[in-house]
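Please decode residue identities from the backbone states below.
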């Protein structure tokens, strides 16, 4: 069993908020702006709403504290098929972290270190990601409580400051490219918010299922609300097609910074907050990736995987030559072409998991007691209660 302490429901809310909203601070959000054109906020609601609905259907399969997402998948589909599915999720998450790291590093170099080699920036960033992940979930939980306050605080400052620049005529037509295009692209870009699934790996670290469920729902409401407001703000301030061509939202800020008025401008606070949130978000994803690797290999120590994962992420990021290439890889390969894989995994886990859980309840109380969707061969007998300090294996 993986031993890594416990976190509070508020920390779960903070972690999921940072994982999801942190992506909105970098150039990845331009994918939604591009396909939504003048109505990108509606595309955001479609894509994020679908994945949020899927998480709500997956949550009842995680009532048992000793089972994370990988354990539920193995119990649902059996060891061999479950291993294949977990391997696919591992590959998708690894690619997501690698592409996000490359995009973030290009932005860091543009704003802060334009003359510094990419390799140096990547190594420093990886150290800032790996060290918190190595210390475990309790450190990450406390850190992200601070990060979420910074993130929501900077949003509360910057969004009102843009009110004088807002113009309703900049978002016409209201449906942008049309309702059918928004619906189709929203479905295809569900993977843009695939990080919602990572919170299911944290189930063993919250003792009470009801508290865990409420924290996840609260985080979803925060992410949907703040994401919608931020996207709508962008559409109101930058008219299409201007917003469709903004590769990097910090370009104008960088010009101000290089003129020497760093501290005097609130843009500096935004840039520094973005840097802290970006690294905190990637640390969480590296931690989740190490948990997934440990669960797949039935290991009791997730830390042994972190150095190897960091090396793979480093070399993977170096293989991406530029920011436009990273955006294309995320949009075309990871989102659209990865959609059938991700959608099949989610739908199959929901359908088969709930069917097995209902069958176990009909068969007898011993099967129903698992409460985690387990009904595969070899899992019918009741499991002994684990000590409170135990996590998932």
């Amino acid at each position: 069993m993986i031993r890594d302490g416990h976190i509070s429901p508020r920390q779960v809310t903070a972690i999921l908020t940072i994982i999801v909203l942190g992506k909105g601070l970098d150039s990845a959000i331009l994918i939604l702006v591009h396909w939504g054109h003048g109505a990108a906020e509606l595309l955001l609601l479609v894509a994020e709403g679908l994945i949020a609905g899927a998480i709500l259907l997956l949550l009842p399969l995680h009532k048992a504290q000793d089972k994370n997402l990988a354990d539920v998948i193995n119990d649902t589909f059996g060891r061999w098929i479950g291993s294949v599915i977990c391997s696919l999720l591992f590959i998708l998450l690894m690619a997501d972290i690698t592409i996000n790291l490359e995009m973030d590093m290009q932005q860091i170099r543009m704003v802060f270190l334009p003359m510094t080699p990419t390799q140096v920036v990547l190594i420093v960033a990886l150290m800032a990601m790996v060290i918190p992940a190595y210390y475990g979930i309790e450190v990450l939980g406390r850190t992200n409580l601070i990060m979420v306050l910074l993130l929501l605080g900077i949003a509360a400052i910057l969004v009102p400051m843009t009110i004088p620049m807002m113009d309703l005529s900049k978002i016409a037509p209201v449906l942008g490219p049309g309702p059918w295009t928004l619906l189709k692209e929203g479905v295809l870009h569900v993977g843009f918010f695939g990080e919602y699934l990572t919170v299911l790996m944290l189930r063993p670290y919250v003792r009470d299922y009801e508290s865990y469920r409420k924290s996840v729902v609260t985080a979803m409401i925060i992410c949907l609300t703040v994401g919608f407001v931020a996207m709508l703000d962008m559409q109101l301030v930058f008219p299409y097609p201007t917003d469709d061509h903004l590769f990097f939202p910090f370009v104008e800020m960088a010009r101000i910074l290089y003129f020497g008025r760093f501290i005097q401008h609130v843009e500096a606070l935004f840039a520094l907050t973005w840097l802290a949130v970006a690294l905190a978000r990637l640390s969480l994803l590296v931690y989740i990736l190490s948990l997934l690797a440990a669960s797949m290999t039935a290991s009791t120590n997730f830390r042994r995987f972190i150095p190897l994962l960091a090396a793979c992420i480093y070399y993977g990021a170096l293989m991406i030559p530029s920011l436009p290439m990273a955006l294309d890889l995320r949009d075309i390969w990871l989102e659209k072409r990865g959609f059938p894989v991700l959608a099949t995994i989610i739908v199959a886990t929901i359908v088969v998991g709930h069917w097995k859980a209902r069958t176990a309840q009909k068969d007898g109380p011993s099967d129903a007691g698992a409460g985690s969707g387990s009904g595969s061969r070899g899992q019918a007998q009741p499991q002994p209660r684990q000590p409170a300090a135990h996590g998932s294996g």
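Observation: Residues 159 and 230 are 7 Å apart (CA to CA).
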